[in-house]
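Dear support,

I submitted the protein below through the web form. The confirmation email said the job was done, but the results page showed an empty box. After a refresh the structure appeared. I'm attaching both so you can tell me whether what I see now is the final result or a partial one.
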Amino acid sequence: MLHIDGDMIAYRIACAIGDEGEEAAVGWTTNSFMAKNILQHFDELTPYHVHLSGKTNFRYDVAVTAPYKGNRDDKPRPVHLAAARQHLIDVWGATVSEGCEADDTIAIAATADGGTVVSLDKDFDQLTNPIFNFTTFKTRQATQLEATKTLYKQFLTGDAVDNIIGVEGCGPGMAGDLI
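What the results page shows now:
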């Protein structure tokens, strides 16, 4: 089973089309991307599941040190993002998670069935599942020790992308030394 990060794909498609591009290009661009960058690299019978994040996420409620994703600027989302997401739902059977992110549903499902994760997100390095990079077309897979070290390293350093504060003064070098 392939567990495909639809959030990342929809965003990349919408950015590639650009604000001046035609919405009609969303469908064929998405279909081409899915076929050429993902599916052709696997057996034709490999089942897949496209995951998208919904509007609700428990992290916004439990983040007490700093607002979850509170460091992101307020620039508008790509014009065709909603259309790309809808195309993934309508044509590719994507499911939308509520209460958590697609990353969570991907990690849970991949851990349960041993499937391959299709994403560029570094957070999946905490898993021992194969992770397919759809830009390099390479698959990597962490050992249990490597995956555990990645998880602990994020505990210590935090995650600047999502505005998760780590231990003050603990960067990647110190975290690696401590672990």
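Response: this is the final, complete result; the empty box was a page-load delay. Strands lie at 2-5, 48-57, 95-99, 116-118, 131-133, 138-140, 158-159, 164-165.
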